[in-house]
Automatic annotation (TrEMBL):
The keyword Chaperone applies. It comes from Pegethrix bostrychoides GSE-TBD4-15B. The keyword Zinc applies. Signal peptide: none annotated. This is 33 kDa chaperonin. NCBIfam families: PRK00114.1. InterPro entries: Heat_shock_Hsp33, Heat_shock_Hsp33_C, Heat_shock_Hsp33_N. Redox regulated molecular chaperone. Protects both thermally unfolding and oxidatively damaged proteins from irreversible aggregation. Plays an important role in the bacterial defense system toward oxidative stress.
Length: 303
């Protein structure tokens, strides 16, 4: 199934559901960063979570940055997701691998360890909103759920999953279920919903069984007045880096440093942390930057 995001409501608008399939973009991230199994699971879950959280933002240019920083061997996980369906991310130590945990699953919690989740919401105007919460388990889904409950005061459940094998990622995505204020006082409804979400048994098994997002929604709350939004949003791994941005960053270094790069390496090389793209600027490009710097200095002196 194509990578996508779908929204729905149930219980007369009292329950909000968002589901996303991110198999393709998670596999792209795995290949770009040469991720281990456990690193693939950690980054894949966080990217799916970022897209689900960004789905409630109103402006198309709004974005959310998630940084999971633990004391485990993986180091940190960084994800940037947008309301436009684009996402990118990386892990500090992509090569780290761990034995399966006691349940026989990838030990994402052990790889992440204890620490904090940092979230920055840029709603497209004004100042971004920042929040910090302590990691609950390092398994990503629990931690993002804790963030939603503690920072946004919204009863929520996140089910995230990545299935990766020798051939790569075969299933990835997630489900966000939120109880909105109009239904939060219905304790019986909340308890029943919690029971149903707990009974899902994970998200990737549903994809592997051939379930589509509408079918997953229907199985979960189909008897509670499910209303699926008609628009299916495509999601993708996309990075905003470019050669022009790299040249802009190099220009900031100044003429002395650029001259040293020309003399020592006959150019410069830069790698984007988010997507792994390698950019190379040769001596001619660096000489042009020096020319621009001198022109800027001359203009500044004459003004």
């Amino acid at each position: 199934m194509v990578d996508q995001l779908l929204r729905a409501t149930a219980a007369e608008g009292g329950i909000r559901l968002v589901g996303t399939i991110t198999t393709g973009l998670t596999e792209e991230a795995r290949q770009r960063h040469q991720l281990s199994y456990v690193a693939t699971a950690a980054l894949g879950r966080t990217m799916a979570g970022g897209l689900l959280l960004a789905s409630s933002m109103k402006r198309n240019d709004a974005r959310i940055n998630l940084r999971v920083k633990g004391d485990g061997p993986l180091g940190g996980v960084m994800v940037d997701a947008g309301a436009d369906g684009t996402v990118r991310g990386y892990v500090d130590h992509p090569e780290i691998e761990l034995p399966p945990n006691a349940k026989g699953k990838l030990d994402v919690g052990g790889a992440v360890g204890s620490g904090y989740l940092y979230a920055v919401r840029d709603i497209g105007y004004g100042y971004p909103y920042s929040s910090t919460v302590e990691l609950v388990s390092g398994e990503i889904g629990d931690d993002l759920t804790h963030y939603l409950v503690s920072s946004e005061q919204t009863p929520s459940a996140l089910v995230l999953g990545v299935f990766v094998g020798a051939a790569g990622v075969s299933a990835a995505g997630g489900l966000l279920v939120q109880v909105l204020p109009k239904a939060a006082r219905d304790e019986a409804l909340v308890e029943a919903l919690e029971s149903r979400v707990s009974g899902l048994g994970g998200f990737t098994p549903l994809l592997q069984a051939g379930k589509s997002l509408p079918q997953i929604f229907a199985d979960l709350v189909g008897d509670w007045g499910l209303q699926i939004f008609p628009e299916t949003q495509l999601v993708q791994f996309q990075c905003g880096c470019s050669f022009e941005r790299v040249l802009g960053a190099l220009k900031i270094l100044g003429e002395r440093e650029l001259r040293d790069m020309i003399a020592t390496d006959e150019g410069a090389e830069a790698t984007c942390h988010f997507c792994g793209q390698i950019y190379q600027a040769g001596s001619p490009e660096l000489e042009e930057l020096i020319r621009q710097l001198r022109a800027d200095q001359a203009e500044s002196a004459s003004s």
